[in-house]
Amino acid sequence: MDMLKLAALDAEDLKVIAAHAQDAVGKVGDIVWRPAEHRLTLELNRFAWEKAGGRSKERRRTLLHFARVEAVKSAHIRRDFPDAIVSLLTIRFEGKDEDPSGQVFLEFAGGGSMRLDVECIEASLTDLGAAWATEHQPSHDLN
Known about the structure:
Number of helices: 1
Number of strands: 11
Oligomer: single chain
């Protein structure tokens, strides 16, 4: 098994995680904010972009984890519907000069978003198990 385990400690590292997490899907109920622990986790089924150039297309269960999170705000994500599906489009960081603190933005299809106020970037993406085949590769209308 060639499972991913990535860590991000700066904005450039976070771009790598964002590339691997693009088009990951999951349930709203699998997004867990633990304010006392200053962490947010998302269990997702990510499309294995690193395999997309070959014949096989696959998805993997993965855990996206953010530590040192001071606050979380969300928009257009219905927490009262835990079985609703979200599709992650991108992750980006906005900070100030040399200050390690800033905001991590998670943007979802359909206009949903989350803003994480972070002390610094400390994120990871960890595959949790074996892959399964999928016939569908995500695509985006660029118009």
